[in-house]
Amino acid sequence: MREILPDIERWRSEGKQVALATVVKVYGSGPRPLGSKMGISSAGEMSGSVSGGCVEGAVVEEALNVIKTQQPKLLEYGIANETAFSIGLACGGTIDIFVEPLNW
Prior knowledge:
The structure is a single chain. This protein is α+β, with helices and mostly antiparallel strands. It has one domain (about 5-100). It has 3 helices and 5 strands; from the N terminus they run αβββαβαβ. The protein has helices at about 5-15, 55-70, 80-85, and strands at about 20-25, 35-40, 45-50, 75-80, 95-100. Strands 3-2-1-5-4 form a 5-stranded antiparallel sheet. The radius of gyration is 13 Å and the shape is globular. The two termini are about 15 Å apart.
């Protein structure tokens, strides 16, 4: 989290809204460890990583919706998930990512 805080603080100072995505479960082989975080601004900027690049684009899209609705969301990506496979999660595992709006 420390490595993404400067970006989050900058975005907030620029008047942008922010969402935080966190890896909350890893089943089998996952691209990033439990607790990995990524910040997403309302302008679509990102800092950090929740999947080493393989599902970041999809997470950014979901995060923008979370910012818009102010409703947190739990996402699941895995090899058995047809959407996840098509966006590149081919490591054989499954990851759950919790996306929440940051309102502090």
